[in-house]
User: Which sequence fits this backbone?
């Protein structure tokens, strides 16, 4: 199979994933609305609801980021720029695109960007927002 045929298949996968994410986000958001309208029982129920709301919120945020990346990738495809590295301009290997169809850079450029930005340091996974301050202990 040629590279152009493989890239067209990747676009189809992106469209299917985008549609699935739209449906998931609609369901997640409607579930959150329903849960907020219901009355909770006691303080333990309220705590459990709060924890579940936080998990749902983080899931929605992750799905939204992926959806934005997919929409950008589809836009790059339509503009004829899909599959080329933003950093060096070379074609991104198909193996990388199959793993991450919305990738915008090759492995070498991604590694350079991560080392330049210091992304190799400790990541605070308990933070929902990128610019949130860390709780002091």
Assistant:
């Amino acid at each position: 199979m040629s590279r152009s045929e493989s890239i067209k298949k990747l676009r189809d996968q992106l469209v299917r994933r985008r549609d699935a994410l739209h449906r998931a986000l609609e369901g997640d958001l409607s579930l959150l609305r329903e849960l907020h309208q219901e009355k909770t029982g006691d303080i333990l129920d309220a705590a459990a609801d709060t924890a579940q709301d936080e998990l749902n919120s983080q899931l929605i945020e992750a799905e939204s980021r992926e959806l934005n990346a997919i929409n950008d990738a589809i836009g790059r495809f339509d503009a004829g720029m899909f599959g080329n590295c933003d950093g060096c301009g070379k074609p991104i290997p198909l193996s990388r695109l199959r793993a991450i169809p919305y990738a915008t850079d090759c492995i070498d450029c991604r590694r350079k960007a991560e080392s330049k930005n210091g992304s190799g340091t400790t990541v605070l996974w308990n933070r929902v927002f990128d610019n949130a301050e860390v709780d002091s202990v």
